[in-house]
Amino acid sequence: MITRSSALLQRTDPPGADVAPLTLESSWQTQLSRAVRDPRELCRRLGLDEAWLLGAERGHALFEVRVPEAFLARMRYADPQDPLLRQVLPLAAEGESVPGYVADPLAEAEHTPGPGLIHKYAGRVLLIASPACAVNCRYCFRRHFPYDDNSPSRAQWERSLDTLREDPSLHEAILSGGDPLAASDRQLAWLTERLEAIPHLKRLRIHTRLPVVIPDRVDDALLGWFAATRLQKVVVLHINHAREIDQSVVDACARLKAAGATLLNQSVLLRGVNDSVEALAELSERLFEADVLPYYLHVLDPVTGAAHFDVADEEARELVAGLREVLPGFLLPRLVREIPGEASKTPL
Ligand SMILES: *Cc1c(COP(=O)(O)O)cnc(C)c1O
Ligand code: SF4
């Protein structure tokens, strides 16, 4: 891990720069802080011309660019249609207002019983463990989320944890965000300890994209608190295309698995990224090679700025029907939509 991270840093530093030796503990954080956050640099690194840059700068003004090096390294040079790049490259189209597309499509603002909590479904409560993400996905339904109002202090967390303690119907705590693994291990260990002290909680679920975009995140410090908890562990990764899964991601999955996690994946069906039977089948096959089972295939949430990713429901159903003809049943993701006010995700 050290070797790979160091190589990465040396490549992005100017020649002759003093590269401080990395410790295992700081390596993912260093990678996080050095993620590409400038549309000009993103276009230059991937060999995209001025026309793409103009669009990237317009989109960036609405929702900033953020791409870690380890993810960027899996993209093809000079290919604006690269399925990984398309997920993170801002476009001018993001500035268009499209009927039906809104800032908070899931109406989450109405379901916050305490700071950092979202409780919509029976038995499960979602905790916003970190407002930050390691990567900014252009289609993200939280791109306009008021994170400033939802970044609780420890005292506020204690009050939110009281809410969980007082509700014996809750069996599962879901760490979400942002990306929960963008929080420090110290913070996550603290939160997990508090959660496992609540007797009616059985499961800890983590929804994260960090093991995909910075696989070094799955380091010994993380595995320490994660493996130690009495709670049953589920990690739901977020991968949309087979090419996101390189050997470093396979290795990160193996470490999570060895620590006792059940690994699942959720994807979003995205125009120009994975909107073909071939792409979806390859994704399922590749996930299983990494010991991950497909869980959900979400249709796009109608968030302002993401309309260009939309795939119509009828086409989505046909794609999944096509997928059923080529894959074993256990590699078929469930096609769902999230409808505000419903008691679960809604199958299409
Ligand atoms: C998606 C979601 C969950 C988890 O739903 P599952 O169907 O159990 O995966 C829980 N809470 C909220 C608020 C969600 O959006
Ligand atoms: S919450 Fe998930 S989909 Fe949204 S930007 Fe973060 S990593 Fe991407």
TrEMBL record:
<dbReference type="Pfam" id="PF04055">
    <property type="entry name" value="Radical_SAM"/>
</dbReference>
<feature type="domain" description="Radical SAM core">
    <location>
        <begin position="119"/>
        <end position="342"/>
    </location>
</feature>
<dbReference type="InterPro" id="IPR007197">
    <property type="entry name" value="rSAM"/>
</dbReference>
<keyword id="KW-0663">Pyridoxal phosphate</keyword>
<keyword id="KW-0004">4Fe-4S</keyword>
<feature type="binding site">
    <location>
        <position position="133"/>
    </location>
    <ligand>
        <name>[4Fe-4S] cluster</name>
    </ligand>
</feature>
<keyword id="KW-0949">S-adenosyl-L-methionine</keyword>
<keyword id="KW-0408">Iron</keyword>
<keyword id="KW-0479">Metal-binding</keyword>
<dbReference type="InterPro" id="IPR003739">
    <property type="entry name" value="Lys_aminomutase/Glu_NH3_mut"/>
</dbReference>
<dbReference type="GO" id="GO:0051539">
    <property type="term" value="F:4 iron, 4 sulfur cluster binding"/>
</dbReference>
<feature type="binding site">
    <location>
        <position position="137"/>
    </location>
    <ligand>
        <name>[4Fe-4S] cluster</name>
    </ligand>
</feature>
<feature type="region of interest" description="Disordered">
    <location>
        <begin position="1"/>
        <end position="21"/>
    </location>
</feature>
<keyword id="KW-0413">Isomerase</keyword>
<dbReference type="InterPro" id="IPR058240">
    <property type="entry name" value="rSAM_sf"/>
</dbReference>
<comment type="similarity">
    <text>Belongs to the radical SAM superfamily. KamA family.</text>
</comment>
<dbReference type="InterPro" id="IPR013785">
    <property type="entry name" value="Aldolase_TIM"/>
</dbReference>
<feature type="modified residue" description="N6-(pyridoxal phosphate)lysine">
    <location>
        <position position="345"/>
    </location>
</feature>
<dbReference type="GO" id="GO:0046872">
    <property type="term" value="F:metal ion binding"/>
</dbReference>
<dbReference type="GO" id="GO:0016853">
    <property type="term" value="F:isomerase activity"/>
</dbReference>
<keyword id="KW-0411">Iron-sulfur</keyword>
<dbReference type="InterPro" id="IPR022462">
    <property type="entry name" value="EpmB"/>
</dbReference>
<protein>
    <recommendedName>
        <fullName>L-lysine 2,3-aminomutase</fullName>
    </recommendedName>
</protein>
<feature type="binding site">
    <location>
        <position position="140"/>
    </location>
    <ligand>
        <name>[4Fe-4S] cluster</name>
    </ligand>
</feature>
